[in-house]
Amino acid sequence: MASMANAPLYLLKPLNLPRYELGICSRIATTPFRSTINAPFLTQQSSKQSSSPIICFASDKQNSSTETSSTARIRSEVLTPFRSVRMFFYLAFIASGGLGTLIAVTQLIAALTNPSRALDAPEIAKGLGIDIGAVSLFAFLYYRENTAKNAQIARLSREENLSNLKLRVDEKRVIPVSSLRGLARLVICAGPASFITESFNRSEPFTEGLVERGVLVVPFATDGKSPSFEFEESEETKDFTAKRKRLWQLNPVFVTEWTNWLNEQKKLAGVSSDSPVYISLRLDGRVRGSGIGYPPWNAFVAQLPPVKGMWSGLLDGFDGRV
Hints:
The chain has eight helices and eleven strands. By secondary structure, the protein is of the alpha+beta class. It folds into two domains: about 25-60 and about 165-305, Glutaredoxin, CATH 3.40.30.10; about 80-160. The longest helix is centred in the middle third of the chain and has 44 residues, at about 120-165. The radius of gyration is 27 Å and the shape is elongated.
């Protein structure tokens, strides 16, 4: 029997009405860089010492709740293929028990009103109790299964909304989160600019391990300020700096959509709107974990398998329980 997965901080429910907004983008001290690492979503650029994100304040994209709901239902059927069968049998048992209850009630009434059949009343009452118990049991099982189904579809719909949010790879490339499925494990780091900067500094000792595991960070400053990332430029640290820049290369665009999504996650998890949080995703794009405060970089390195080498592919499903 399926049950609802406990996953804090989940995703924004799509709007039902068409929404059009004026798209206004502003470039905030963006600094390109050059990397020698071969990645399908990283382009070569000239190197500088610091970088800040490009931010877009609104989107003119129209949401499609019908498409998202359809996709979520299909994914739900794939994840729990026998749920519909179980629910069908639960309904069949409820109908059978309900019919038996109706027959038993009529027989009991007849036995109570007919003195010649009074001796049959205890046996009929026993059967009636069994029927009522069976109906109650299968009704409870159906209710629990249906609740789990609705919760799973809602969670998958929110995850689908996350996959439609946009990221900027460089000055010329804007991609949806879904395009990184199977390529990277995203870690969304949301909070004030000072929180983002401190998270950047804390990730430095684990840079190589995070890059080997396909981790990419999405820094989202909630206070409207732009965090500045300082990279050490020298011949000795050239390769390490390239990995640092690759790790922190993504920037969210359409801030309104990201803000709405993030606020929805905090509301669902009962977290205050001003709390800094992190959300880590699996390779398949599903939410792996989340929490308040700085991302546990050391735990990511210890728990996640590398995306290349002898373990590539074999351990792709060991990103963690959803």
